[in-house]
From TrEMBL:
InterPro entries: CxC2_KDZ-assoc. Residues 59-164 form the CxC2-like cysteine cluster KDZ transposase-associated domain. This is CxC2-like cysteine cluster KDZ transposase-associated domain-containing protein.
Length: 182
C-alpha cells in the first residue's frame, strides 16, 4: 500500500507521492523533495499518485523554478518570483516552465543566459521558447541518419509529452524549423 509510505529523501510520511519517469530506479518522493532532487535535471517527467493510478505531472506543476546563473539559485537582485511562462523543448517532450533569469544590473541578456544553460532560444529578442542542446543534437542526427522531416520529428515530441491528449501542447513546429536553420 501507498497510504503509509515514507519519502525516500526526507523520511516524512507522504500525502503527495510522486515518482520520476526519467530517473533510473527512482524511489517515491514527497512532491517538494522531488523538486529539490531535480534542480539539475529540470526536464524530467514525474507522476503523482492519485489513489488508484499515477497521473502525468511536470516538475513545474510541483513548483520547480529553473534559475539561470547564480548556481541554480534565485537571483539576489530579483524583487519578485518569475511569472512569465516559458517553453523548453527537450528530448523527452515539451515542457512549460518558469525561468528565473538573472536580474543583476550587469547581468547578460536573456538569450545569453539561455545559451549558457545549454538552451538554444527560438528568438534572440525576448525569447519565450528554447530548445535544449540535447534536442538540437538529436534532431540533427535524425535528419542525417533517418532522413526524418521536421514535421515528423516534432510529432514525436508532442507524443512524448502526452500520448493521450495531443492538443495539450502548443504548436512550436515553426520555432523548431527556425532554430534548426540557424
Amino acid at each position: 500500500g501507498t497510504t503509509n509510505a515514507a519519502c525516500a529523501w526526507c523520511g516524512q510520511p507522504m500525502q503527495l507521492m510522486t515518482r520520476c519517469r526519467d530517473c533510473f530506479q527512482a524511489p517515491p518522493l514527497w512532491g517538494s523533495c522531488q523538486v529539490t532532487s531535480h534542480v539539475h535535471n529540470p526536464f524530467h517527467w514525474t507522476e503523482v499518485w492519485q489513489g488508484k493510478f499515477y497521473a502525468h505531472q511536470s516538475l513545474h506543476d510541483l513548483g520547480l523554478l529553473i534559475c539561470l546563473r547564480h548556481n541554480s539559485t534565485a537571483c539576489p537582485a530579483s524583487l519578485r518570483p518569475p511569472s512569465t511562462p516559458f517553453v523548453v523543448i527537450h528530448a523527452n517532450g515539451i515542457h512549460n516552465i518558469l525561468p528565473g533569469f538573472c536580474q543583476c544590473p550587469r547581468g547578460p541578456n536573456h538569450h545569453i543566459q539561455l545559451l549558457c544553460a545549454n538552451l538554444f532560444p527560438a528568438t534572440f529578442d525576448n525569447p519565450k521558447t528554447a530548445f535544449s542542446f540535447t534536442i538540437m543534437k538529436d534532431f540533427h542526427l535524425h535528419r542525417l541518419c533517418l532522413k526524418k522531416s521536421t514535421y515528423d520529428y516534432y510529432a514525436k515530441l508532442v507524443r512524448q509529452t502526452s500520448n493521450i491528449i495531443l492538443a495539450s501542447t502548443n504548436d512550436h513546429y515553426g520555432e523548431l524549423l527556425r532554430a534548426s536553420q540557424i
